[in-house]
Write a structure and sequence with these properties.
There is one protein chain. By secondary structure, the protein is mainly alpha-helical. The chain has a single domain, classed as MetI-like (MetI-like fold, Orthogonal Bundle). Helix content is about 75%, strand content about 0%. A two-stranded antiparallel ribbon has the order 1-2. A hairpin with a 5-residue loop joins strand 1 and strand 2. The radius of gyration is 24 Å and the shape is globular.
């Protein structure tokens, strides 16, 4: 009986320890999400009121060319940033793991963009991409409207996004590479395997779990992109329609137009899109992710 009472006391202490996290999760995440679902079926009225409109917001959303364009812009942004960014991060991680002088300093340099505020990063790159006095056009003697040209603005934002995230992803991948036993490489060297073969048959399979986590994180971040577009493109830019993401459209509809019901529907669609893409990734991981050590 005493042992059982002691077990109940341990359970009580355990619940008390996790209570702040659970309460914070319910208040800050679960309740707002439920409220967003409810608001997506309503139309905002004056003085904080609302009117239930059923599926009208969703019907308007899927019939809106602006929404469809924002969805495509978001997907295109993921296609441009995720594969290239993760691949470059893997290359940087391998180089940082090599025996080179000053690699600790290089790690700090690559990680530095993650420490700097996104607004500062966007403003510096916006100045560098300026068509009239930007350093990129000046150095390479170009006359390219990097930010105001609708045909290339999404590529410009993608470049900045890749640059700002590559250091963080590289550090995560570096930790995965350093956990690989050196005995594998020693055995491969004795068998006459080249560095490329060692990377393909040892490094890549062994680091695939970390690579999968980085891929999921980068996909979610890219699907929720907002700050780079807001700071680099912004309102009044003729190229905004070709760079506007779903979250940026949500911001405009909610905080500028005041159409909170329609904006909530955009959020729900974004969450569903993230869930669908993440589910596809989790189903496909069995084919390329190696969890055997």
């Amino acid at each position: 009986m005493k042992k059982k009472a002691w077990g109940n006391q341990d359970n009580a202490w355990g619940y008390m320890m996790i209570a702040p996290t659970i309460i914070g999760l319910l208040i800050l995440n679960v309740y707002p999400f439920i409220q967003t679902i409810f608001m997506s079926f309503t139309s905002a009225k004056a003085f904080g009121g609302y009117k239930f409109v059923g599926l009208k917001n969703y019907a308007s959303m899927f019939s809106s060319p602006e929404f469809l364009r924002a969805t495509w812009n978001t997907i295109l942004f993921c296609i441009l940033t995720v594969p290239v960014g993760v691949m470059l991060a893997l290359v940087v991680a391998i180089l940082l793991n090599a025996k080179i002088k000053g690699k600790v300093a290089f790690r700090a340099i690559f990680f530095l963009p993650m420490v700097v505020a996104p607004a500062a990063v966007a403003m510096v790159w916006k100045w560098m991409f300026n068509a009239e006095y930007g350093i990129i056009n000046t150095v390479f003697h170009l006359k390219v409207d990097w930010i105001t040209n609708p045909n290339i603005v999404i590529f410009t934002v993608a470049i900045v996004s890749i640059w700002s995230a590559i250091g963080y992803d590289a550090v995560l991948l570096l930790s995965g590479i350093q956990n690989i036993s050196k005995s594998y490489y020693e055995a491969a060297s004795l068998d006459g395997c080249t560095k490329l073969q060692q990377f393909w048959y040892i490094t890549l399979p062994m680091v695939s779990p970390t690579l999968f986590v980085v891929l999921i994180m980068r996909l979610m971040t890219s699907l929720k992109v907002y700050d780079m577009i807001y700071m680099m493109v912004g309102e009044g830019n003729p190229a905004l329609s070709k760079a506007q993401s779903l979250i940026y459209l949500f911001y405009r509809e909610s905080f500028i137009s005041g159409n909170k019901g329609y904006a909530s529907a955009i959020v729900i669609w974004t969450v569903l899109l993230i869930g669908i893409i993440s589910a596809v990734q989790f189903m496909g991981q069995k084919k390329w992710v190696n969890y055997d050590v």
